[in-house]
């Protein structure tokens, strides 16, 4: 993935006013400091990553439904497609 924590691109960017609870703000601040980016840039990057992840999960769900339709091995197929998602959840739990 190519998310840039640096300056904005040449396009006009929309602004979002975001309110965070103290715990989330502290986590964002630590992440921003560790990555060497301002908080807003770090938040933008995390949001982009989360949206991409959500789109990928939806794509996998559509693929699984399409591919499993009419297949006798649908249960095994779905388990194989879900395994990477479960690994990602485990990775996220270990980071937090």
Describe this structure in words.
The protein has helices at 22-35, 39-68, 74-95. The protein starts with 21 loop residues before the first helix and ends with a helix. The longest helix has 30 residues, at 39-68. The protein has 96 residues and is mainly α.
Blueprint of the fold:
Elements lengths: L21 H14 L3 H30 L5 H22 L1
Helix pairs in contact: 1-2, 2-3
What is the total number of structural domains?
1
Total beta-strand segments: 0
**What structural class results from the helix and strand content?**
mainly alpha
Indicate the percent of residues in helices.
55-70%
The average pLDDT is 79
Order of helices and strands: HHH
- Unreliable stretches: none
Overall form: elongated
Strand content: under 5%
Name some characteristics of this structure:
mainly alpha, single chain, 96 residues, 3 helices
